[in-house]
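ARCHIVE CARD
SHELF: 3
SLOT: left
DATA:
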Amino acid sequence: MNCSKILDMVYHYSDNDGTEDSMPMLSQIQICLHTIFCRDCAEKIERYETARHIMRNDFSPPSPRLEDSVMLKIASDGELQENVPYAVPGGLSTRGWIIAGLIIVISLGTSFFGLDFQKIADETGISFLLPFGITAGIVLTSYCVFFIGSHIKELTERFGL
């Protein structure tokens, strides 16, 4: 039997119940005989069993005083957070909104410098600028509406409205 099959048996039977009694006797004998002759597997199995024992027993020792202090902190934070407005997780900050707005304005402004824009404007004439202007206006207006709508409380406090 090779080392990988022995280690697979150890991992398989120890993960099922956590007890070695569930391992068949033939498998126990095979593992025992293999570890007698193979020091590498014996060390790996010993390290695995030690780590499994630490994770089950010693990894997170019980702390009764910790539970009391955590529950007290939760109770005190609950009283303080009743007046705090709800913040949307993952939302853009004011700085993020301003950076996004600058990117939109720069991209709309530089679209006139593209090579294809000059060709299209020459072919269609002034009639092309009207739809382009309407589209740019809709984009900027929508952005401003979303920005003001999402920051209405901050803006009213800042400007005293």
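SLOT: right
DATA:
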Amino acid sequence: MQNLSMEALAAEDLVPHSGDMSLLDRVLIVGEETLTAELYVRDDGIFARDGRVPGYVGIEYMAQAVAAFSGYHAKQRGEEVRLGFLLGTRKFETSVDSFLCGDKLTVEVERLLQAENGMATFECRVSGDGAQQSARLNVYQPDNIEAYLKEKI
């Protein structure tokens, strides 16, 4: 694994999300097959209600960590950060119904499989004070997002 400088690890530089949908704060560690990110559960975002964020948002935290993994490796190859799609979630387990706003969470992802057609599978974990979640995410990142979207419309 490679530790990176905090300047190089701003999640907003690695994830194609912005504004209220940008949920990760920073990437702490990235390796060939893994990434660890950190976030503070936000009380000003679209998911916050009465000082809490629903536990199912952990899946989005995981998906954005996968996006950061992809974005980091794209930048290492001299490519642009690209959009991808969360196709499905399997084996989602959680110890919490919701997260408390202000809590610090760690998100870890590990790539298990990468196909040549852009499909991949990641084992993911979210952990924090009293919170433990895990899931397996199936994702897809087409080579040409514009052509893919035109084809599907």
